[in-house]
Structure formats: structure tokens, C-alpha cells
Amino acid sequence: MEFGLSEEQSLLQSSIGRYLESNASLDRVKEYVDSGDVRANDVWGGLSELGVPGIIIGEEHGGVGLGMLEAALIADTLGGGVAPVPFASTAVMAPLALSTAGSDAQKSRWLPALADGSVVAGTAVTEVIGSRQDAGVTFEGGSLNGRTLFVLDFEADVYLVADENRALYLVESDAPGLSRQLLTTVDKTRHVGELVFVDTPAEVLPGSADPEVCARVIDAGRIMLAADTIGAARTMLAKAVSYSKERVQFGRMIGSFQAVKHMCADMAAQLEPCVSMLWYAAYAFDNIPGEARLTACHTKAHTAEVGTFVARTSTEVHGGIGFTDELGLHLWFKRISANRQLLGGPDRVREEAARLQGLVTA
Questions:
Q1: How many CB atoms lie within 10 A of CB 326?
Q2: Positive or negative CA dihedral for 11, 15, 20, 21?
Q3: CA-to-CA distance for 316 and 237, rounded, in angstroms?
Q4: How far is residue 288 from each of residues 172, 239, 275, measured CA to CA in Å?
């Protein structure tokens, strides 16, 4: 019995990694962050040519037709390169919602455009998880009213929006009555924002009357964020180990000091089991429905905490240089920090897991 990746899955991850090394270097990421551009179109265009946006979209709609595990491997690699691209929402959450609950007309219109990367989709489901005061969305008479915060892949062409009943809707970015506000977060490699609806026309996904659809979309997003965190943490660990072999203090490489060895070993020991946890969560999503939600919750919560530990410890290994813009380590640190809170922080997500297991009541 095989418990590792197949040859095809390993090749997929390797090919994406090689592309990012050549086309989305740290200098390119810094350039994007400093420019204030809406999108890194060159990076996203190249990934689109590789079929990344269509990874879970069926071949009948121009996609690749693979599963959640393959999508997680790509998210892992993108996190490792702190790539400034709209993957989780555009390539996973929105296509999943459309494929599961969309009408034939909606699928025909949107899925091919998502698959070839010509359309970017944002996802607004935060209020389903936990809303702030005066936030929330209602639907009546074909229109949405209210506001929703922390929309993923904010600079989008179309938005997938959840209302207070967990039904899902499509809203185009130029729809009347829609106003958008970019929010400031620690992570400058991706955009999140706020949408305000005032009698904004919206197109319901017919199959989303079942709240399970919205829950599945959130589960998928959490798996992608967990994968992104693992990739970012792995890079921070690798940079810490490399730096410990170069930095000389008191006439010795700092990697020869037992304290630094322990720091690197602790990071590796905590991070490595997260990889298996992620693979199982992604596999369960497609193949073990009874375990899918619970594993998605635990994976999101656990990787968030391990990622935070690795980010902090790696920065400590680097000493003062870890905080400088020159090294760029802060980009991974902030990516992990943002992933921790998006779609629910560890405490909230573990509370959901406890409800699923009947350990607490709503």
C-alpha cells in the first residue's frame, strides 16, 4: 500500500515549483508588493498556461479534472514561493461551488473562463463563519443587501457570496449597487476587502439551498490555506537551516551551537506531520465524506499554530536580519499570519470541530 504521492502528483508539484523559481522570484514578489498592482498578471498568466486555474474543473469545461489533493499540492507550492496569485478562491472555492450547485447555464458561462484563467473569482463567506457587528448579507427579490468582510481574492471579476442562510450567489464586479473597499492586512501578497450591497442584483446557485454546499466550499478553502501555510513554513525552515550554516559567530557557524540545532529540529519535528495531515484532509474531502469536515477543521487549526511557531522560530534563528526587507523573510511570516485568521482562527475552527463531534452544543 502506498502512503506517499504518486509519480504524477510529484511531477505536478515539481513543475509548479520550477515555474515559480523562474518567474516568481523573491525580487518579483517584492516588485508586486511595492507596485500596488491589482494582479501579478505575468505570474498568473504562466500558471494559467500550466492549467493551474482549472485543476479541479472537469475536462468538459476546459479544466484538468483532478482532485483536492492535487489542488493542495499546488497551494503548498504557491505558499512556498509566497506567490502573489488568486488561487484558493478562483481555482478551488468558486469552481467547487459552481460544479456542485450551479445551473447548466452558469457552469457553461463561468467554468471555462475560470479554467483558462481569464476570469478571477472572489469568495465572500466570512459572515457564515463569524460576522462582525453590522456585517451580514440578506437576499430578497433577486437582490442582495448588507456587507461582507475579508473577501478572498478581492480584486475579482465575479464574486461568490454567501447570505445569512448559507445560500450562494454570483455577483459581477460591475453590478449596480455594489461598492468595494480594499482592506489593509499584514499580507501584501494577496488582496482581501469589503463588499457592500445595496439592492445589488445577484444570481443564485440553484443547488445551494442546501447549506452543506456552502460548508463544503469553506472546507475546501481551509484546506487550501492550510496547504499554503505548510509551504510557507517549509521555506522559512529551509532558510533558517541555510542561514545557520553561513552565519559565523564567535568563530563558529551558528548551526554548530546546540541551541540553534534544537530550534531547527523542533521546527522540522512539528512541521513534518502536518504534511500527512494535509494529504489526508484533501483525500478525505473527495473520498471520505464522513470525515471530510472534521479533518479540514483540525488541519486548518493545527497547521495555523505550527506555522506560527515555525515563522517565529525561523525569524529568531536569523536574528536581526530576519526583520529586514532585504532578506524578505517577513513576506512568509505575514503570509502565515494572514492564513491563520482567514476562514476562521484556530479557536473558532476547533469549536466547529467540537460541535461536529458532539462535544459542545451551539
A1: 7
A2: positive
A3: 11
A4: 34, 36, 18
Q: Is 173 within 8 Å of 153 (Cβ atoms)?
A: no
pTM of the model: 0.95
d(CA 296, CA 221): 9
Q: Using CA atoms, how far apart are residues 109 and 53, in angstroms rounded to an integer? A: 15
Does 229 lie in the same domain as 336? yes
Domain residues for 165? Answer: 121-209
What string of pLDDT tens digits covers the 362 residues of the chain?
Answer: 566 899 999 999 999 999 999 999 999 999 999 988 888 999 999 999 999 999 999 999 999 999 999 999 999 999 999 999 999 999 999 999 999 999 999 999 999 999 999 999 999 999 999 877 788 899 999 999 999 999 999 999 999 999 999 999 999 999 999 999 999 999 999 999 999 999 999 999 999 999 999 999 999 999 999 999 999 999 999 999 998 888 877 878 877 788 889 999 999 999 999 999 999 999 999 999 999 999 999 999 999 999 999 999 999 998 877 777 778 899 999 999 999 999 999 999 999 999 999 887 76
Task: State how far the Cα of 208 lies from the Cα of 80, in Å rounded to an integer.
Answer: 34
Please indicate, yes or no, whether residues 275 and 311 belong to a single structural domain of this protein: yes
The DSSP call for residue 197 is: E
Do 232 and 351 belong together in one domain?
yes
Q: Do 39 and 95 fall into the same domain?
A: yes
Are residues 217 and 333 located together in one domain of the fold?
A: yes
Q: Which of 160, 187, 209 is the last residue in one of the domains?
A: 209
Q: What is the 3-state secondary structure (H, E, C) of 234-266?
A: HHHHHHHHHHHCCCEECCEEHHHCHHHHHHHHH
CATH number, domain of 270, equals: 1.20.140.10
